[in-house]
Design a protein that fits this description.
By secondary structure, this protein is an alpha+beta fold. The protein has helices at 14-18, 25-39, 46-56, 197-203, 241-249, 288-298, 313-326, 344-349, 385-403, 458-462; strands at residues 62-66, 79-80, 90-91, 95-98, 112-120, 134-138, 150-153, 157-160, 162-166, 172-178, 187-193, 206-209, 219-220, 231-233, 254-258, 262-267, 272-273, 284-285, 302-305, 329-333, 354-357, 362-363, 369-373, 376-381, 414-418, 429-438, 444-448, 465-469, 481-486. The structure holds ligand LQZAQKY5, molybdate ion and magnesium ion (MG). Residues 264-402 form the MoaB/Mog domain.
Length: 494
């Protein structure tokens, strides 16, 4: 943890107090001390601040939901396969289950004839065993009958017209098979025992196989996809389409998931209007609450937009105390800096909670303030929209993910090439809103969005990532390798 202090000159000094009749020297001295304290905040590196928050966060409660309501939730149990996949030898083609050896001497000019003894549609099982010279019609996904070790796809076979000719002198039947595509009308004969004639002749089921197949052809053996005992979905993993499929495959009609954290959003500031109010001079609409709403939903939590709070410490105290009782997490925006109406410092230094930090070595969002009260976190984010947004990505999102069982909830950086110079000097690390693209050659490139200032919302719309420009006297040159943090939620779809 760094110990450097950011020293800012107090706005009132003793000399100034002498010229303000309503302020006594004593009051001015107290005010100055207050300002000193308010200004001289310990500046904390981002990683230290994130670690401090995460070590206080507790995993949330667990609830049981039907699988159809589990998409997007985080699994609270480890789901393990209790059988291999597939659990029977599965045909991956429509065709005929055969004994591969039977086809070994076949080729296009000399197809082998096989007697079709039945069929296995999906969901059925062939009771009995396939013997030499026989084939069973089979569909994709059906269980391969015992005795068969290959499936010949339908396209490699033709059905052969067959006519039964009885020979009364013995109990055998001669069957005349017209070879498909045989221009000169050649015929071949095969002898079948009488016992098998009825089924055979009745359904005229003889096929010519035009291509030799190897043992295992078009069959997925037991366990080819997954063995018994493999982890299907880890505890804490978010349930997406693939996870839904796996859980369904193993018959999880209900699953244990982490409860979605209930998050209160309270903007502060006398200048704020609700969206149904008319825009009047000096006022602005409360847009931060809606930015946060999106971020919280995309982190899997449930946002609650509460009415914004005017710049009055008593009201603020009442409203925040109440919110901290009712919700799992409370987020405020605005009022964390050193202005006369910035009240979050006052609240978080005179409460029955622990203040973790109120100055982070980052921009935007340097006055980001976090504390815990009765083991619930309060995130007092800066009022500037981009500062609020970045503060939420770096501190709130990881917290909400940890509450939902994610072991490593911090955003993971990738490396990309900066396509244009970013010459912003700063003693703080800068998390720059930017656009990450993958070139046709497969390289990751990143460029800053146009409005990099803390008050800009348009750059939140345009960005799909943040890149880190470490504290520097010179900024960064085009071509530099930078750490990029892809943004969560809908942003990642851009
Ligand atoms: N003397 C100094 N002034 C400032 C410092 C400093 O170190 N010394 N830090 C600056 C930095 S950095 C930031 S970030 C901001 C933080 O401001 P606050 O958190 O106190 O926020 P406010 O003063 O309430 O508002 C700032 C700005 O944001 C607009 N805002 C506030 N809430 C909303 C909302 N819900 N929706 C849309 N916009 C909102 C507000 O109108 C102001 O324009 O302080 C700097 N000052
Ligand atoms: O820390 Mo602030 O967001 O730079 O204006
Ligand atoms: Mg302020």
């Amino acid at each position: 943890m760094t110990q450097d202090k950011e020293s800012v000159k107090p706005v009132i000094d003793d000399a100034a107090a002498n010229f303000i009749p309503s302020i006594t020297a004593a009051t001015a001295a107290i005010n100055m001390m207050k300002h000193d304290v308010k200004f001289n905040r310990e500046i904390m590196p981002v990683q230290t601040a994130q670690a401090l928050v995460l070590e206080r966060v507790q995993r949330g409660f667990i609830e049981c939901v039907p699988l159809e309501q589990a998409y997007g939730r985080h699994l609270a149990e480890e789901a393990v396969s209790n059988r291999p996949v597939p659990h029977f030898r599965r045909s991956i083609m429509d065709g005929y289950a055969v004994i591969a050896m039977d086809t070994s001497r076949t080729d296009t000019s000399n197809p082998i004839m096989l007697q079709v003894i039945g069929e296995v549609p999906c969901g059925s099982v062939w009771n009995g065993e396939l013997r030499q010279g026989q084939a069973i019609r089979i569909m994709t996904g059906a269980q391969v009958p015992d005795g068969a070790d290959a499936v010949v796809r339908l396209e490699w076979t033709t059905t052969v017209e067959s006519t039964a000719v009885c020979d009364d002198s013995n109990d055998e039947i001669y069957e005349v098979l017209a070879r498909p595509g045989d221009a000169d009308g050649d015929v071949s004969c095969s002898t079948l025992p009488m016992s098998e004639v009825a089924q055979h002749v009745q359904s005229r089921q003889v096929i010519a196989v035009h291509q030799a197949v190897k043992s295992g052809e078009a069959i997925h053996g037991i366990g080819t996809e997954m063995q018994a005992g493999e982890v299907l979905v880890q505890r804490g993993q978010r349930i997406g389409a693939g996870e839904m499929g796996l859980l369904a495959m193993f018959g999880y009609a209900h699953v244990q998931v982490f409860r979605r954290p209930q998050v209160a959003i309270l903007s502060t500031g006398e200048e704020l209007l609700s969206l149904d109010e008319e825009l009047t001079p000096g006022k602005i609409y409360n847009s931060n609450s809606y930015i946060l709403l999106a971020q919280i939903e995309s982190a899997g939590a449930i946002p609650h937009l509460l009415p914004h709070i005017p710049d009055d410490i008593r009201t603020l105290r009442e409203r925040l105390d109440e919110a901290m009782e009712q919700y799992d997490v409370v987020i405020t925006t605005g009022g964390v800096s050193v202005g006369d109406y910035d009240l979050l410092y006052e609240y978080t230094t005179n409460w029955d909670g622990d203040l973790l930090f109120n100055k982070v070595k980052m921009r935007p969002g340097s006055p980001t303030t976090v504390g815990f009260r009765h083991s619930k976190p309060l995130f007092a984010l800066a009022g500037n929209p981009a500062a609020c947004y970045v503060g939420c990505e770096l501190f709130v999102r990881p917290t909400l993910l940890r509450m939902q069982g994610v072991e490593e909830p911090l955003p993971k950086p990738i490396t990309a090439v900066l396509t244009e110079a970013y010459r912003v000097r700063d003693t703080f690390d800068r998390y720059v809103r930017a656009v990450l693209t993958i070139t046709d050659e497969g390289h990751a490139e990143v460029r800053p969005t146009r409005a990099d200032i803390s008050s800009a919302t348009v750059s939140i719309r345009d960005a799909n990532c943040l890149f880190l420009s470490p504290a520097s006297q010179v900024g960064m040159e085009a071509g530099a390798l930078v750490q990029v943090f892809p943004l969560g939620g809908l942003q990642e779809l851009k």
